[in-house]
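Sequence in, structure out.
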Amino acid sequence: MLLAASISTAAHAAPGSAAIGEMVPNPALNARPMPTYIPIDSTKFEKNLDRAAGPPSRIIYLNNCKATNGCTVYAGNEDSRTQHSSIINGTIHLSKFAYSDSVWQQVVQCVKQTYAPFDVQITDVPPAAGVGHWENIVAGLPTEAGMQQGVGGVSPFTCGIIPNSITYTFANVYQGDVQQICWTVAQETAHSYGLDHEFLASDPMTYLDGSYPKRFQDSAPRCGEYSARQCQCGSATQNSYKLILQLFGSPTPTPPKVTIDDPANGAQVQAGFAVHASFQDDQGVDKTELYVDGKLAQTLSAPPYAYNAPGDLGSGTHHVEVRAYDLQGTPGSAFIDVVIGAPCSGDSCGDGKACIDGRCVIGPGQPTGLGEACTGPADCASGQCASDGAGTMYCVEPCDPAASGCPGNFDCLATDANGHGVCWPGAGDGGGGGCAVDDSSSGALPIGLGFAFLMVGLRRRRR
């Protein structure tokens, strides 16, 4: 379907290919709403900049329209500062992003990762009044913008740079699929830099499905949608990575800020002690690592960042490092020294901690501590949130069912037949959470529904 008639200044499509502004139906995959572009006249924006002159802005603002309960956009020359767009007719109102804040944060992080090789700021905070920026509205439906239902996103297009453009990702057609939304955001924003579609499935400028996550590739494929064609702006091939790099340049690496929250420097701990850390970075953290005495002990790529030191460390002082890498691979670290002494017992841990199988953990009554209510692993210092299968969910800590090492009012319930268990409130005496126990001799909690959240937590910590 033709979204806009080609203007006289637009490049002509190669024989058998799509004209600029035409959304090409996918003969093999008609289900996915497809992004596209619409040509605009040079009078529709300030000026057609050359990439070598540098970008008019380094800000890409992702607008989910939640703060204003939808976004109103006005027809006119391209200007994100005043919400005027050259590719709509009249005034339109787009409904707000239809999915949860958690899905939104995943979308923002994915777009940050896609643009990580370039010196550009991805933000969902509105720029100050009058500050130039690129805007992608990540919300609404194509019909609200006066476009047909199969359109997943749209951008103005010329063979140069369009300052202060407004591009659209009609996120509410993608059913909360983070990768699909992220792919469309990346493609539509890049159309405003003069980038065409590419016949390369791994690049976000593609129409081809598969190969996730999609990242701008330092290669030179042919342009095209479902078959290769001549690029609309005259070249035979297109290198999306180099074109965007030429515009924005590379970022100045800034290492992540790492904080070891627990244990404290100089603390006395037991073998297998837990380490909790937090991180700050302008673009986001890609992965984190725990080193003990210079040896890699554990790698985590998602919160909660709760590590376990090796259980075979001997008595004495041990050097602990938590290292984080940003999206460009720049490392940042924090260090402490701890002392391994005799295993804890009873109430010897103090400071709101509890002793489990000879190690000190954050105890009952403390935020994120043992026995606190939870909805998922991120709510727990241990990174493990367990359910009894009837809607009751608590933060748990691993324990040895044969050792009975849980604190008072907790029992160690087996989770499998291999000697693994968790401390559960009031499990054995009829109090507390009243967790259902299997009738078999192993006394194991039902795996699957009963401990679905526990299993998720363990997988996340070890990926």
